[in-house]
Specification:
By secondary structure, the chain is mainly alpha-helical. It has a domain at about 95-235. About 50% of the residues lie in helices and about 5% in strands. It has helices at about 5-30, 50-55, 55-70, 75-90, 105-115, 120-140, 155, 175-185, 190-195, 215-235; strands at about 95-100, 105, 145-150, 190. A two-stranded antiparallel ribbon has the order 1-2. A two-stranded parallel ribbon has the order 3-4. The chain is elongated and about 85 Å long. The model is unreliable at about 255-260 (pLDDT under 50).
Length: about 260
């Protein structure tokens, strides 16, 4: 058999080997892979039933299950995402925007910064009026309610928002919420303002470059602040957070794919 005739057989053997590798990984997980991180829900395996079979719901659920559990899934998802980001500066994750110097944003935080999601002065006033009534009622029962204004990466890093999304800022929800919080003396912790005020003062990043949410360090600061605020307004003592060291690591172009057993 000459080389030309052997080519189809070799390609067929390679395809069969890849299929076997994929199938055995799906069945036995003989290579330990680093699981995906972040929030996601894998489809669960549905039980077979004749009613589901003839209705087509069983086939549909199996299709979703196999799509979420095929062999080497986490590896190929990471490879696809990294390839798109490294060569085309695009992010496969839904609602994530690549800003200047590769700062990543969730689209909703950019909308919040520019006021694109503004729900209206009257709507916010009604909400805060009800909240004020609720706070006064709970105070009489010696209970407390606290409003927490969360930070957003759009307001924290507006300088890295891509030029094609730049526009004139309108009225924002958080600015109007602040007006009524101050007007009616509503219990509030404003982490949005705190993060911005400490942007240059913080010894560690409050927002990571490649993350769309606050850093773990920023999250711990917020949790500690909420505990201390509750202690203050209730005049009580609660278990407090503490840490002795902060570990820093540099982002990597490709996340670790394999995990040690």
């Amino acid at each position: 058999m000459n080389k030309k005739n052997r080519t189809p057989a070799i390609l067929l053997m390679i395809l069969l080997a890849l299929f076997t590798l994929h199938f055995t990984q799906y069945q036995f997980h003989w290579i330990k892979l680093k699981p995906l991180e972040g929030y996601y829900i894998d489809a669960e395996k549905d039980k077979f039933s004749w009613n589901g079979w003839f209705a087509g719901t069983y086939q549909e659920s199996q299709d979703k299950y196999l799509n979420d559990h095929f062999g080497f899934r986490s590896f190929f998802i990471r490879l696809n995402h990294q390839w798109r980001f490294s060569f085309f500066n695009k992010v496969k994750t839904q609602w994530v925007v690549v800003g200047k110097e590769n700062y990543l944003y969730e689209e909703n935080y950019i909308k919040a910064w520019y006021g694109d999601d503004f729900i209206g002065q009257d709507s916010i006033e009604q909400r805060m009026y009800k909240l004020k009534m609720l706070q006064d009622t709970l105070n009489q029962l010696e209970k407390r309610i606290i409003v927490v204004l969360a930070p957003g990466k759009g307001s924290f890093y507006p300088e890295y928002i891509p030029d094609n999304l730049h526009k004139e800022r309108g009225t924002t929800n958080i600015d109007v919420y602040r007006q009524y919080i101050e007007k009616w003396n509503i219990n509030c912790i404003d982490f949005n303002r705190y993060f911005i005020d400490n942007k240059e003062k913080s010894p560690y990043p409050l927002y990571p470059q490649y993350g769309i949410h606050w850093s773990y360090y920023g999250m711990c600061l917020a949790a500690d602040s909420m505990v201390r605020y509750v202690e203050k307004i209730n005049n009580i003592d609660m278990p407090n957070m503490y840490w002795e060291t902060v570990k820093m690591s540099q982002p990597k172009k490709m996340m670790p794919i394999f995990q040690k057993r």
